[in-house]
Each structure stands twice: as structure tokens, then as C-alpha cells.
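Appendix B, Record 12. Input sequence as logged:
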Amino acid sequence: MIAVASVKEVGVRVSETNISTTSAWRHRKSNREAEAKSIKENFTPSQISALHWDEKIITLMRKGKTHFVVVYLTGVEENQPQKLLGVPQAPSEKGKDESKVVRDCVLKWDAKDVVGAFAFDTPPSNTGELDWIQILGKLDWLCALVRLLKAYP
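Logged structural output:
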């Protein structure tokens, strides 16, 4: 009733507008998905980029403590593209789980071939039983190192 009265007050015919909250939610969701797709398709990372990640433990209502990993890609020189690749939730605080979500983020954005450097604090993925090099795998890491050395002799 309030929505109808508001629409009439601004001079719009009720039959020509949508006042359904479900339809509005669906429309906003569709717009967000289209914008996200456009951003992903138009993102061009630097040829050599640094991959940053850090863990964050956040307490969520009704869920308790939840482990998130912030994954960020930057160019290694000034004025190069920067991109937040995601803030995925890791199943646990173990380094193995953290390295998997970072790797999945990099693969989702198709940025595996441009990672030439890593920057991280001291997350479990570089201090635990599994070495941080598992983020891209040993062979991928060697390829990234070769790319970095070729770009900056």
C-alpha cells in the first residue's frame, strides 16, 4: 500500500511500474551478474603481476568464526592494473585449504600465466606442512620466475 501511494505521489501510473520487491531483487541480481561478467571480460592484467593474499578470520552472526582469504593481483610497476580477484571462504585455517582457494581464484580470473611474484604476510599456506609454492605448483612457479627474469634482466 505504501509503495502504491508513493508511486502515485510522484506522478507515475501504477500499471507502468514494478513495485514487487521480488522482481526488483531479481532485476538487481541480473544487473550485478552482467556487470561482473563485463568486468571479468574486460580485465587485462599486466604481463608480469604480483599475487597478494592474506587470511582474515571474521566472526559471522550464527556461523561463528569463518576463515576468508583476500586475493589481489597488481602489476609490478607503477600505474599498472590492480584487481581484487576475490575474498573466498576457506574450509579451514590449514595452509592446504588456503592455497587451494588462492589457486582457484587465480584460475577463475585466468591470471596464472601473468603471476611473476608473490607477496604475502605469514599465512598458514607458507608456514605449514605444505609450502606456499603449491599456490601455483612447482612447474608453474618456475615458469613465473623465468618470465620475471626475462622481463627484468
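Helices lie at 2-9, 21-42, 95-108, 138-151.
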